[in-house]
Specification:
Elements (H helix, E strand, L loop, with lengths): L1 E8 L4 E8 L2 H8 L3 H5 L2 H20 L5 E5 L5 H8 L4 E5 L3 H13 L6 E4 L18 E6 L11 H12 E8 L2 E10 L1 H4 L7 E2 L5 E2 L3 H4 L8 E3 L10 E2 L4 E7 L10 E8 L4 E2 L2 E9 L7 E3 L20 E4 L6 E2 L4 E8 L4 E6 L17 H4 L2 H7 L2 H14 L5 E4 L6 H7 L4 E5 L3 H13 L5 E4 L15 E5 L15 H9 L3 E8 L2 E11 L11 E2 L2 E2 L1 H14 L3 E4 L6 E3 L4 E7 L7 E8 L8 E11 L2 E4 L20 E5 L13 E10 L4 E10 L3
Parallel strand pairs: 3-4, 3-6, 4-5, 6-7, 22-23, 22-25, 23-24, 25-26
Antiparallel strand pairs: 1-2, 8-12, 8-13, 8-16, 9-10, 11-18, 14-20, 15-19, 16-17, 16-18, 20-21, 27-31, 27-32, 27-34, 28-29, 30-36, 33-37, 34-35, 34-36, 37-38
Helix pairs in contact: 1-15, 5-15
Organism: Ixodes scapularis
InterPro entries: Arg_MeTrfase, MeTrfase_PRMT7, PRMT_dom, SAM-dependent_MTases_sf
GO molecular function: protein-arginine N-methyltransferase activity
Length: 681
């Protein structure tokens, strides 16, 4: 059954009603779960399989019957491994009912329906005893309850409870142990995602940063990144990888709710400790013969051949205070954790530091803006373009009206001598932040309108604006064209503008590029089979959920996901942002000019301010056929992934990519279709 639900349209900037399936939320949860990506991880599957067999052999060698508990079974894969290797009993628990139901089907399809008991409960709710969920405790636990931070999905509680309530005293656990590693680095690039720097407008004028923003510790959330995609020039390692936490999953003493570690280390290079990189490694067996590592390539035994995975990435943490170190100088790294998260600090102090509380943002910026947005505010390329165009158009008669979230453009315009600058900022926290910037920069001609654009009246301004400015960027935007909210809001604020007011940017251009993704295609591709088990029923669950809840085009930071160009970039549509709203529909085709398998289309927008200044959300270097594309690292691009069945056409000569595009002015929707076809003869 379908029901009306309220949702925010990021293009129109309005809350709207939409008819959606009643089960939309749980379909979305399944689609976002990374189940498919995880099951494509052949190394994970293989090493779990090997370690589980070794554990079962060890229990048999003790003269015991093998009783396996699989917590968080998902597809049922680990439970089926145990059943297939002859376990006496296998219990698998899965709390999410739709997934549990499908796991039951997968288990049945593989012939283990009478060998595996599936419990649709959280593991902490399982009861043990005659007639209960489990008749007796297990002597092997196999589970995969890890995330980027290792402990963020509640692993500590899961293992602690299982050891106490669900397992025999000498039970074996797969994996056996885990180690979290940290590495201090000098990296202005990574630090740019954490705090905003000063921005030069002219040789004499600079937008300064309030002290409260400079000194703020930020938010406690990990910044998860594909660290292997960093360029060598992006960072300088100041330390080797340092073990900071060790967990033995059979020993509750290593699973305390809180812990901290002080590591005395020596700087390998001179620099500023801008960031702490983090990853972890699993010892799948007690002898650590089978290891599963999430390390980036420079710390991985397989180097650049290390397996790709998106469900477990690496993390970046930002010390509240940076320190300068010289080669050979000793300093301290303090690692802290609770049950779910990690945080780090660095110090020159020889005295053991006290464990710090998790960082807390008190400036408002880190709570209101994403890390990608903070990085965007620091992007020299963008800021030079804004400064260049503003120097051409801002005069002492300029009355500026600024739209967008957390932009520095209003302060740049004020620094250039604009008569008046109005900043539309309906968010209370960002309103206060704008006021801090005004005070710090001693700007008298800036006024903040704490209203949504739709609610502004003419008397909210002392005089009409003759310059409408935006980057554009809105915090609700996920895809590049969501920032067309700037254009869709224009009719609502037309009464605040003078006739002939200048609009910047004046033009927005849609582009596309057919590509071959090295790995990203896996997030949508069916698994079909893993370790000899048929997972097609689980594929069906995920693909149905994606069909219900996912848009055909999804946002991805493509600098983290390598791809090669199979066509030249192609123009899709251009809209005039200074004109009235107007629907647009275009179509076309582009020839494949590079060999390979086209598994996706990358989509982006350019915002044109004038003939000399364009800001792109797409490639930042010339696209070369058959070569890796260099993407803007401070925005997300749109990605359309093809069904795997479409790929065969691209291996043949004379194939084309056909596309259609529609921008609807009434609904504020942008729709694409893509199809790979042979050239008609």
């Amino acid at each position: 059954m379908n029901v009306f639900t309220s949702h925010f349209n990021p293009i129109t900037g309005r809350n709207e009603w939409e008819l959606r399936p009643e089960e939309y939320d749980y379909h979305q949860e399944i689609a976002r779960s990374s189940f498919a990506d995880m099951l494509h991880d052949w190394e994970r599957n293989s090493k779990y399989h090997s370690a589980l067999r070794e554990a079962m052999d060890n229990v048999r060698n003790r003269g015991e019957r093998v009783k396996v508990l699989d917590i968080g079974t998902g597809s049922g894969l680990l439970a089926m491994m145990a059943a297939n290797y002859g376990a006496y009993s296998v219990h698998a628990c899965e709390a999410f009912a739709p997934v549990a139901q499908r796991a039951r089907q997968v288990i049945k399809d593989n012939g283990f329906g009478d060998k595996i008991c599936l419990i649709s409960k959280r593991s902490t709710d399982i009861e043990v005893g005659p007639g209960k969920d489990m008749p007796e405790k297990a002597n092997i636990l196999v589970t995969e309850v890890f995330d980027t931070e290792l402990i963020g999905e509640g692993a500590i509680e899961t293992f602690t409870h299982a050891l106490r309530e669900l397992l025999e005293p000498d039970a074996l656990v797969v994996p056996h142990a885990a180690t979290i590693y940290a590495q201090a680095v000098h990296s202005p690039f990574l630090r740019s995602f954490h705090t905003v720097g000063a921005v030069s407008v002219t040789g004499e004028q600079t937008v300064l940063v309030p002290k409260g923003v400079q000194d703020c510790a930020g938010v406690p959330a990990v910044h998860d990144l594909q660290l292997s995609q960093l360029e060598e020039s992006d960072f300088i390692p100041l330390t080797p990888p340092l073990p900071v936490f060790r967990f033995n999953f059979t020993d509750p003493l290593t699973l305390a709710p809180k812990a901290h570690t002080v590591v005395e280390t020596t700087a390998a290079e001179s620099g500023t400790c801008h960031a702490i990189l983090m990853w972890w490694k699993l010892d799948m067996d007690p002898g650590a013969k089978i290891e599963l590592s999430c390390a980036p390539y420079w710390a991985h035994s397989s180097g650049k051949s290390a397996p790709w995975r998106d469900h477990w990435m690496q993390g970046v943490y930002y010390p509240p205070k940076t320190i300068q170190v010289e080669t050979g100088q000793q300093f301290q790294l303090l690692a802290c954790r609770d049950q779910y998260s990690l945080w780090f600090s660095v110090s020159h102090c020889r005295k053991a530091p006290e464990p710090a509380e998790s960082p807390l943002c008190n400036c408002g910026l880190h709570m209101s803006l994403s890390r990608t947005r903070i990085g965007m505010l620091n992007d020299d390329t963008r800021n030079r373009a804004y400064a260049s165009v503003l120097q051409k158009v801002v005069t002492k008669e300029s009355v500026c009206l600024c739209l967008g979230t957390g932009s520095l453009i209003p302060f740049m315009a004020a620094k250039l001598g604009a008569k008046k600058v109005y900043v539309i900022e309906g968010d209370t926290i960002l309103h206060a932040l704008v006021t801090e910037y005004m005070t710090c920069n001693q700007l008298q001609g800036v006024s903040v309108l704490e209203k949504e654009p739709l609610h502004l009246a003419e008397d909210d301004l002392d005089e009409r604006a003759n310059l409408l400015l935006s980057e554009p960027f809105f915090s609700t935007s996920l895809l590049p064209w969501h920032n067309l909210q700037f254009w869709f809001l224009r009719p609502e604020i037309e009464h605040l503008l003078t006739p002939g007011a200048i609009t910047l940017p004046g033009t927005a251009v849609f582009y596309g590029l057919a590509v071959e993704f090295e790995h990203l295609w896996k997030i949508r591709a069916p698994v079909r089979e893993a370790e000899g088990f048929d997972l097609s029923a689980f594929d069906e669950l995920i693909q149905n959920a994606q069909a219900v809840s996912d848009e055909m085009v999804e946002p991805q930071p493509l600098w983290e996901y390598p791809c090669t160009a199979m066509t030249h970039p192609f123009h899709i549509a251009t809209v005039n942002l200074a004109s009235n709203l107007k629907s647009a529909a275009t179509s076309g085709h582009v020839c494949f000019e590079s060999t390979g398998n086209c598994n996706g289309v990358a989509l982006w927008m350019d915002f044109v301010f004038d003939e000399d200044n364009t800001v792109t959300t797409g490639p930042t270097k010339k696209v070369v056929l058959g070569k890796k594309v260099t993407w803007d690292r401070f925005s997300r691009q749109g990605v359309y992934l093809f069904d795997k069945r479409s790929l065969q056409h691209c291996k043949d000569s004379g194939t084309i990519l056909k596309w259609t595009f529609e921008l609807d002015q009434q609904s504020g929707s942008v729709q694409y279709t893509f199809k790979i076809e042979p050239v008609a003869t």
